């Protein structure tokens, strides 16, 4: 199933958004075979892809954020999930491609904007550079593919410094770093410059590595984190114990 020629999702000036369906999973593409997001039709409100689930790792540290921002909408899995499952939070998404926004409304269950949900057609860089957003965000989720998926679209020290500036004290950024191997060190170095502490989990799903960047380095107590992971599993059905295991492994490998 594909909608390559649907004019609603192929406005000129941006890659067209198309969908395929296979074994009950609808996938989003931007004019290429790369999967930019996915949704299981039987569970449209769940987060289907493992690395996208890992982008929710901030829940281990911030159980009740008041503002969550997504840079890069993808198939709207994170934006939808945060909007539905964190009713106390304002949820904002910045997405440059109007075709992606349109297809998420039409085929991926993205609700219309309201008092708590604000999906904006805009450049993520403009969002983080806007001083009005500085110091206002608890959680920043960054997943900025382009249609070629060679690496994050925005990966400069200036970009990550602006991301850090958007966070409140104690705020957390999760970011998907993927693509060519040279991208990893470039992005991690830039994040380390901007954030107090940066950790990442083992690679999953086509070389996606999820990085967690803390505005202020947290006190890590694994007994507490495993308790929180059990609560996250109960409450949101996310595999949070795996995330804590990954953090433990990272600390063993990098802080020894």
Describe this structure in words.
- This is Spermidine synthase.
- Pfam families: Spermine_synth.
- By secondary structure, the chain is an alpha/beta fold.
- Helix content is 32%, strand content 22%.
- The protein has 8 helices and 10 strands.
- It has helices spanning 50-54, 77-85, 98-107, 124-129, 157-166, 182-194, 222-236, 240-254, and strands at residues 18-22, 25-29, 37-40, 67-71, 90-95, 117-121, 137-142, 167-177, 197-200, 209-214.
- A 7-stranded mixed β-sheet has the order 6-5-4-7-8-10-9.
- The radius of gyration is 17 Å and the shape is globular.
- It starts with 17 loop residues before the first strand and ends with a helix.
- The model has no long low-confidence stretch (mean pLDDT 90).
Shape: globular
Count of helix runs = 8
Strand arrangement, major sheet: 6-5-4-7-8-10-9
Structural class: alpha/beta
Classify the beta-strand content into a percent band.
15-25%
Q: What Rg, in angstroms, do the CA atoms define?
A: 17 Å
Helix % is 25-40%
Spans of at least 5 consecutive residues with low confidence: none
Biggest sheet record: 7 strands, mixed
Distance between the termini: 50 Å
Strand tally is 10
Q: What average pLDDT do the residues reach?
A: 90
H/E element order: EEEHEHEHEHEHEHEEHH
């Amino acid at each position: 199933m594909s909608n390559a020629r649907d004019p609603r999702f192929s406005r000129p000036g941006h890659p067209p958004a198309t969908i395929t369906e296979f074994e009950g999973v609808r996938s989003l593409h931007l004019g290429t075979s790369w999967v930019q997001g996915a949704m299981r039709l039987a569970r449209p409100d769940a987060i289907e892809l493992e690395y996208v689930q890992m982008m929710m790792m901030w829940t281990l540290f911030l159980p009740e954020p008041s503002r969550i921002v997504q840079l890069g909408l993808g198939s709207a899995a994170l934006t939808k999930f945060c909007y539905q499952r964190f009713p106390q939070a304002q949820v904002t998404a910045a997405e440059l491609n109007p075709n992606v926004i349109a297809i998420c409304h039409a085929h991926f269950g993205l609700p219309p904007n309201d008092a708590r949900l604000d999906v904006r057609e805009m450049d993520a860089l403009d969002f983080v550079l806007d001083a009005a957003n500085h110091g206002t965000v608890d959680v920043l989720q960054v997943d900025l593919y382009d249609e070629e998926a060679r690496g994050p679209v925005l990966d400069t020290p200036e970009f990550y410094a602006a991301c850090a500036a958007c966070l409140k004290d104690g705020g957390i950024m999760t970011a998907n770093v993927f693509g060519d191997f040279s991208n990893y060190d470039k992005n991690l170095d830039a994040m380390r410059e901007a954030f107090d502490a940066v950790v990442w989990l083992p690679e999953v799903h086509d070389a996606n590595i999820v990085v967690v960047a803390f505005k202020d380095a947290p006190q890590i107590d694994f007994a507490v984190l495993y308790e929180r992971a059990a609560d996250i599993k109960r409450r949101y059905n996310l595999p949070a114990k795996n995330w804590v295991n990954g953090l433990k492994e990272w600390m063993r490998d990098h802080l020894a």
